[in-house]
Amino acid sequence: MADLFSQSEAGKPEAQPRTRPLADRLRPAALSEVIGQDHVLGPDQPLGRMLAEGNLSSIVFWGPPGVGKTTIARLLAGESDLSFVQISAIFTGVPDLRKVFEAAKLRRQNGAGTLLFVDEIHRFNKAQQDGFLPHMEDGTIVLVGATTENPSFELNAALLSRAQVLVLNALSPENLAEILERAETAMGVALPLESAARASLVEMADGDGRALINLAEQVFAWDGPPLDVEKLGQRLMRRAAKYDKSGDQHYNLISALHKSVRGSDPDAALYWFARMLEGGEDPRFLARRITRMAVEDIGLADPQANALCLHAWETYERLGSPEGELALAEAVIYLALAPKSNAAYMAYKDARRLAKSSGSLMPPKHILNAPTALMEKEGYGAGYIYDHDTEDGVSGQNYLPIELDQQSLYNPVERGFEREMKKRVEFFSRKRQPLK
């Protein structure tokens, strides 16, 4: 099935058999007919330049479903005079790959090239991905891979170094509207939809051209009066938002949620929180991540934030769904509006680095206990001042190894409760005795 669609292959849609699937009838016959990917197909863009120079290199298309990956690969083969071979990583094993490579070698010996299109290329394991490399290097194949997952995480560095990654975008509402117009031209009739229902149909497709055509084909079969939004919703199911709990969308959306909280935008934070729930994310994962935000990004600017998140997490465990998610949503709002500080987080990381780099330095002897006469003779505990016996409750003695300079790891900010913490840090610093 095609990914994107043109008026027809021959330019005369009314002459085509009505029994062919609409998506097949609307398959683009030229790259100029592909919708929504001008940023890679334009004359001054990567693929446009490759074709103009007659130098098509291996490519990995990264983008959501239904945006033209298969169609563009097929058309590239035609415009480059290469044999088009298509496989799917889901259904292809090592023996199948060997046959594909052997056939490509025979074509090459006969003076013909091969464009090998690999759908879902990220499904191949490391060894299988490595198997492409010698055939790419000696020119036996031009590899065009397609993936919906981030190539940086899913594809070998060696393969990526031999292929150019091109990002294909989800189709905009304007792109999808153009596809509907082409479908109507092909069918010779207008979609039986009221204006608002037409916009709703575009929204249902969620940026996927193939899904839109499949939805439109069902609408074309309606033989009654034009459908309004309510009746359209009764006839068609809205596509579930694209979300993979272990894939790219998982990481993209949790990043968006975290950064929205950090940026003090409760509306955006709630939106991404809801998007993840609608996609089927485990609320326990969200509870853990929200608590992490309290520790990392709120810190001691609002010491209550961490406790509130833990209470929200516990409330979810007690109530379950759907009421329990409300407690998590309230925690998201609280965190977004709370004062922010990563001073404690940065101090902790700096302390870990200092501990790692300073080796096995001993504490200064005056803060060591001397339970034996030998230890007392060695100076353990000598000169220690009991802080409670001083006027301000602080002796100002040094507590770091004598080999280290005085450190300033924790630097509170002038926000929230850390304003008070900053005053305390400055007071105790003034009391601290200079290193001898």
Describe the structure.
It contains 21 helices and 5 strands. The protein has helices spanning 22-25, 38-41, 46-53, 69-79, 94-109, 126-130, 133-137, 151-154, 157-160, 173-187, 195-205, 209-220, 229-235, 248-262, 266-278, 283-298, 304-319, 323-337, 343-357, 373-377, 418-431; strands at residues 59-62, 82-88, 113-119, 142-147, 164-167. The protein has a 5-stranded parallel β-sheet with strand order 2-3-4-1-5, with helices on both faces. β2, α5 and β3 (113-119) form a beta-alpha-beta unit. 30% of the residues are buried.
What class do helices, strands and sheet pairing give? alpha/beta
According to DSSP, the number of beta strands is 5
**In which order are the strands of the major sheet placed?**
2-3-4-1-5
User: Count of DSSP helices?
Assistant: 21
Give the end-to-end Cα distance, rounded to a whole number of Å: 79 Å
Can you tell me the overall shape? elongated
Poorly predicted regions are 1-17
Average of the residue pLDDT scores: 88
Q: State the helical fraction.
A: 40-55%
* Biggest beta sheet attributes: 5 strands, parallel
Order of helices and strands: HHHEHEHEHHEHHEHHHHHHHHHHHH
Strand content: 5-15%
Estimated radius of gyration: 32 Å
Blueprint of the fold:
Layout: H1 22-25, H2 38-41, H3 46-53, E1 59-62, H4 69-79, E2 82-88, H5 94-109, E3 113-119, H6 126-130, H7 133-137, E4 142-147, H8 151-154, H9 157-160, E5 164-167, H10 173-187, H11 195-205, H12 209-220, H13 229-235, H14 248-262, H15 266-278, H16 283-298, H17 304-319, H18 323-337, H19 343-357, H20 373-377, H21 418-431
Parallel strand pairs: 1-4, 1-5, 2-3, 3-4
Helix pairs in contact: 10-12, 11-12, 14-15, 14-16, 15-18, 16-17, 16-18, 17-18
